[in-house]
């Protein structure tokens, strides 16, 4: 099973999300082609209602502990309750550009 | 000093503390860069630790914090979150309030 599928499966089982996006963004970073190292996840679940963001992310990290100890290097997380998701008109922020390794483009990052 | 004691001391003695990759002027990761930008926009002084040049901190802080990745923003001894949370709090105005309060508390003490 790919890492992407593992993430999807763990989060579906643990949070019963009403909306779930798992995107492999590894191609945006300085890793070999077809890597599974950088992911962006959007989860909308009743389990998050009334919880602070830091607690929500810790809950997700708990579910994905095996992946984070293994292949996953970066995990952009956007966690919402169904009500918050509706207020945001069903959209989450995008990830920043990489600044490290061969993807370094800004003069500061290359110094 | 034990590395965990070092980490605890850093968190206790700096009311606004960012663990990041690189420095605020030369961030080495897009997530760290975005977090620094949000924090600098609040206009208060903050401390930082570059985890790339402190491998002990990089190896041990995630377990202590129950937070596997960097950056990590700590305010008044409490983990606020990583890039995604800090960016969203900045957009909503919550971050400015929190940072101003922490800075005021530190200068008063």
Task: Explain what this protein looks like in three dimensions.
The complex is a heterodimer of chains A (111) and B (109). Chain A is α+β, with helices and mostly antiparallel strands and 111 residues long. Chain A has one domain: 2-Layer Sandwich (GMP Synthetase, Chain A, domain 3). Chain A is built from five helices and three strands. In chain A, strands 1-2-3 form a three-stranded mixed sheet. Chain A is globular, with a radius of gyration of 15 Å. The N and C termini of chain A lie far apart (40 Å). Chain B has one domain: Glutaredoxin (3-Layer(aba) Sandwich). Helix content of chain B is 53%, strand content 16%. A four-stranded mixed sheet of chain B has the order 2-1-3-4. In chain B, α2 packs parallel to α4. The longest helix of chain B has 15 residues. Chains A and B meet through α2, α3 and β3 of A and α2, β4 and α4 of B.
Largest interface (C-beta under 8 Å): A-B, 23 and 26 residues
Overall shape of chain A: it is: globular
- Tally of contiguous helical segments of chain B: 5
Low-confidence segments of chain A, given as residue ranges, are: 106-111
List low-confidence stretches of chain B.
none
Morphology of chain B: globular
Query: In order across it, which strands form the biggest sheet of chain B?
Result: 2-1-3-4
Q: CATH homologous superfamily of chain B - what is it?
A: Glutaredoxin
Structural class of chain B: alpha+beta
Count of distinct structural domains of chain B:
1
Alpha-carbon distance between the two ends of chain A: 40 Å
Strand order of the largest sheet of chain A: 1-2-3
Overall mean pLDDT of chain A stands at: 91
Cα-based radius of gyration of chain B, to the nearest Å: 13 Å
The span between the termini of chain B is 26 Å
Q: How much helicity do the residues of chain A have?
A: 25-40%
The pLDDT mean of chain B sits at 96
């Amino acid at each position: 099973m790919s890492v992407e599928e593992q993430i999807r499966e763990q989060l579906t089982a643990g949070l019963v999300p009403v909306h779930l996006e798992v995107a492999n963004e590894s191609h945006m970073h300085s890793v070999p082609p077809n890597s599974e190292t950088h992911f962006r996840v959007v989860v909308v679940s009743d389990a998050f209602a009334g919880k602070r963001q830091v607690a929500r992310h810790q809950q997700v990290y708990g579910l994905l502990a095996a992946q984070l100890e293994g292949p996953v290097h970066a995990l952009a997380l956007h966690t919402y309750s169904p009500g918050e998701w509706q207020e945001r008109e069903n959209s989450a922020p995008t990830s920043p550009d990489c600044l490290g390794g061969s993807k370094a483009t800004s003069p500061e990052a290359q110094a | 000093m034990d590395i965990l004691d070092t980490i605890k001391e850093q968190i206790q003695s700096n009311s606004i503390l960012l663990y990041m990759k690189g420095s605020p002027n030369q961030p080495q990761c897009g997530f760290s860069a975005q977090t620094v930008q949000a924090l600098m926009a609040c206009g208060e002084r903050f401390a930082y630790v570059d985890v790339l040049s402190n491998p002990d901190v990089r190896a041990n802080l995630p377990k202590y914090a129950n937070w596997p990745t960097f950056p990590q923003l700590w305010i008044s001894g409490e983990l606020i979150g990583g890039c995604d949370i800090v960016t969203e709090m900045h957009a909503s105005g919550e971050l400015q309030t929190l940072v101003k309060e922490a800075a005021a508390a530190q200068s008063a003490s």
